[in-house]
Amino acid sequence: MIRSLFHSVSPVHTANANENETAFCERIPKFVEFYTISAGNKRGNFPQYDKTIVVMQIYGYFYHHKICMPEYRHDPLTGRWVIIAEERASRPNQFDAVDLQQSTQNKQFSANSEMIASATNCPFCRGNESETPGEIDAIRNSDVFSNSMNWETRVVPNKFPAIHKMPRFCEKDDFADLFGHRIEPDDSIFSYGEPLPGFGAHEVIIETSRHLMSVSQFDDHEMTNMFLMYRRRLSALRSENRWAHALIFKNVGAAAGASLPHTHSQLMAMPFVPPPIMAELRRAAAYRKKRHRCYWCDMITFEHEATPSRVVLETERYLALCPFASRFPMEVSILPKEHVSHFENLADDPLRELALLVRKTVALLEKTVYWVSGDLAYNMILKSCPFDIDKFHRTSTGYDAQDDSPSEDAYHFQLTILPSLAKAAGFEWGTGLHINPISPETAAARLRTGVQS
């Protein structure tokens, strides 16, 4: 029965794979409804597991016809989740093109970076707009036409996505209904070997048309545009009502996982809250329930007033510090002093202040980490409160039915910068405990010295 339903969208009948994928996905809700009725339940509210079987059969057909789609896979014993995305193996690596080698010393080569900058084949440079998928959003100084050259900041779908944005299917409530029992820790122990379809949005944010490598090279306008677009994309994805959580991250340098040198960020939105984020939120909710205060607000007060030895930089609205339990050498977190849960709710003035503080912090790290040969590689991670978490995972956040406090009262957005100075090795992989050779107190002291010099 399922096979006959898919006959009209078989690759034999559709020449273009992307067109086939779109047609395929648009029909999924009809297939679920048809299967429900044919199963003898005219009302459509058949058991959750039956719905999952339908979607898994549909997904299996995807693979039968060699339409490569990603999957969320789960180890129910450890609670670890992974994304299987074979399409990512096709990503180009321009660092290899100029013989940039990712060594155990995390070497980056400034001279080679300049060599790449003079190349004309960078897909993120102005004039090469046709080398990327169609534009999602952009900041332009005058031209209003999409995909034209006159842009300052540009957003496109990732050409080699880790997760796929499926048209008109699987809003976050649908995903919770279909697969919620696979995600909740108490139930997921019984779901070994059952993948989840890799639904999600994966975008690339090209912060500037100039061929730069690090945000320390940005001017004020470029830094502000970068964070304005972060806010804009989070707001847009939240309004779609399809996603439960989104993460923005930036990989700079080959040692940090970047495949292209032209500065860019990535955004990944998912229809469920990743369990590690959920566990963090659950603990923060339990803290607020007992203390009636935000965990991060209390932590900022403690770091600022009781133990300022880990504070690196401070502005009117933000504190940059080396976390007490830093996983990596010279790790720095930036947090707002006032409670702000969702980054997309940030007003213009505090947004600009954060943007300039991030640039100053990165420049300070690049100046202080003198023992690295060449450019400093680093990761930047912006963690904001999940979208409408109380509607999606109310019982998972640690609140009881009588507690009306929204989870946004418990969560506090934060931005973390992780220099690529140490790699996880056998002990870290085996235990989950990171060995950090530079204490956060020492790291902060070195960074403060750099501010004064």
Keywords:
453 residues; alpha+beta; 15 helices; 13 strands; three-stranded antiparallel sheet; globular; ten-stranded antiparallel sheet
Describe the structure.
- By secondary structure, the protein is of the alpha+beta class.
- It is built from 15 helices and 13 strands.
- The chain has helices at 2-6, 17-26, 28-38, 48-64, 94-97, 110-117, 172-183, 185-188, 220-239, 275-291, 295-306, 348-368, 389-393, 426-431, 440-452; strands at 71-75, 80-84, 137-139, 153-157, 196-197, 201-206, 245-252, 265-270, 311-314, 318-321, 332-336, 378-383, 414-419.
- The strands form two sheets. The chain has a ten-stranded antiparallel sheet with strand order 3-4-6-8-7-12-13-11-10-9, sandwiched between helices. It has a three-stranded antiparallel sheet with strand order 2-1-5.
- Strand 1 (71-75) and strand 2 (80-84) form a beta hairpin.
- Helix 3 (28-38) packs across helix 4 (48-64) and helix 9 packs across helix 12 (348-368).
- The termini are far apart.
